[in-house]
User: Fold this.
Amino acid sequence: METFTLYNGIKIPSLGYGTFKTEENVTAKVVQEAIELGYRHIDAAAIYGNEKEVGQGIKNSGINREALFVTGKLWNEHRGYESTLKAFQKTLDDLQLDYLDLYLIHWPANAKQFANWQELNNETWRAFEKLYADGKVKSIGVSNFLKHHLESLFEFATVKPMVNQIEIHPGHQQQDLAKYSQSLGMVVESWGSLGQARLLDNPVLKSIGEKYKKSAAQVCLRWLLQRDILPLAKSITQSRMQQNFNVFDFTLSKEDMEAISILPEQGFSELNPDEVEF
Ligand SMILES: NC(=O)c1ccc[n+]([C@@H]2O[C@H](COP(=O)([O-])OP(=O)(O)OC[C@H]3O[C@@H](n4cnc5c(N)ncnc54)[C@H](OP(=O)(O)O)[C@@H]3O)[C@@H](O)[C@H]2O)c1
Assistant:
């Protein structure tokens, strides 16, 4: 599979398999199926409540650990130095792994909830740098960080974040934030790449897809890849997992890329990192 390369030389497979809202009782099975279909990048998080089952799916697949790229995320209630170190160890134990490929701060502490939001993000990051220095994680990054969160953290960080994972899809493009993150040397990953299925009936995406004999979902993923964004996609349905994986055998024309880039805002999750209260 194609890869993106982080500034520290670590390579990430160019499509990630998402695990948000995957029920515990199916998680081990679908993670194993995804690996058998060829996915080599699994996006997990403590708050999804299924890390043990993700770990079981990885184990059941029998794949070599080195062949797989596994991401974990620190949940918001564990911000701070000591609690981050503890939460990381629980994630590692639940996944039955002895290192992670990427660990992300799931959401920034924001000014709406915390007068000391900058300090809180910095203290969390200090623990991330320790985990990185100790070799327990091969790369470290953030998620849902807006420009001001990044500016503040970049001032503090000794090891600069390598990834920003944010909501991006044709209905919520975040062009400025993506470009800004990339200008800081980060790889941008997209969550909700299919608009969490809210975009898949869009007539423009469907008619563009017909030209290439592809679905609206595949058009979304291809559009992201051609913008140098690494898409994550979740499906528990084998045919869709397969479909989402088959996005490396066609190229959207310049005209089609532009037609998608001017689509009006739609399918946004409404989760603004400055406004959320979790
Ligand atoms: N950092 C963050 O804050 C954050 C937030 C949200 C998500 N994420 C990560 O990003 C991943 C992807 O985002 P997401 O899961 O929210 O949304 P998504 O991947 O945009 O959409 C998932 C939905 O689309 C459906 N679907 C998938 N492929 C399809 C296809 N080819 N045709 C029709 N329907 C399809 C799935 O249904 P079925 O499963 O029923 O097939 C599911 O309902 C997550 O799983 C998670 O790992 C991160």
In short: Residues 18-20, 43, 106, 143-144, 165, 191-197, 200, 215, 217, 232-237, 240, 243-244 surround NAP (CB under 6 Å). The chain has a mean pLDDT of 98.
